[in-house]
Design goal:
By secondary structure, the protein is an alpha+beta fold. Helices cover 37% and strands 26% of the residues. The protein has a six-stranded antiparallel sheet.
Amino acid sequence: MFTSTGAGQRLNLIYTMQKSYLSRQVQSSILSSMVNTSPAPAAPYAQVKQYLKKHLQRGRWPPGALMPSEAELVAEFGVSRMTVNRAFRELQVEGLINRVQGVGTFAASLHRVSSTLKIRDLHSEIVARGHAHHAEIHVAREESATAAVAERLGLLKGAAVFHTLIVHHENDVPLQCEDRYVNPACAPDYLRVDFTQTTPTHYLLEVAPLWEAQYSIEAAAPTAREAKLLGIARHDACLIMVRRTVSRNLPVTVARLVHPGSRYLLEGQFKP
């Protein structure tokens, strides 16, 4: 038999144990919420946009192809028409789709991105000035990739690559020496093209639509071979651009473009 004093002590002990247990549970819950660092889900319009952009990049809808309608995407994602419309608007601003009122939404020709990146066809630029363009082909062959070329094209050292060396003329004046390596997986017929009739830039934009480009520009002296091909002195300053392009996550080409400084102007426009 327990005394009343003993029962009171037991009740106090039980209360204290329960209070301690509840306190630990609260603390555990707080700590759990503090360490939960899962990123917040993307906004609905961003999810729709990312879905469309991913499949455009993978080539599910080639240039000019009709894409899903707003109604189809509303049903698929369970979102509002306004949400889908925002995703389409942003993709249109980025130049990835074209929208025709009352007709539908179409995948854009990806080479149009090149105008934003200022990657233009030299032949078209020269002809637009009312001048004549012609090209001299000095190298057009398959080679084994050096370590440097292989790294830029995402290939193994010694893998097959296509190599062209072309001098572009404007009214018979050498304007650009183009030393280019191409990933055969992206343009298997590259060496079959007559580059006296079209430029590598024009052809590659057609067969491997541009998705991404990186480039560097520097003022430097040409190599001895470049100076000879361009008809300039070895010590003459040149504007040299090295450009690498990517199409649907595959490196397409890396090119060294050498321009005599006296025959090339780099300009732009800025409006605040």
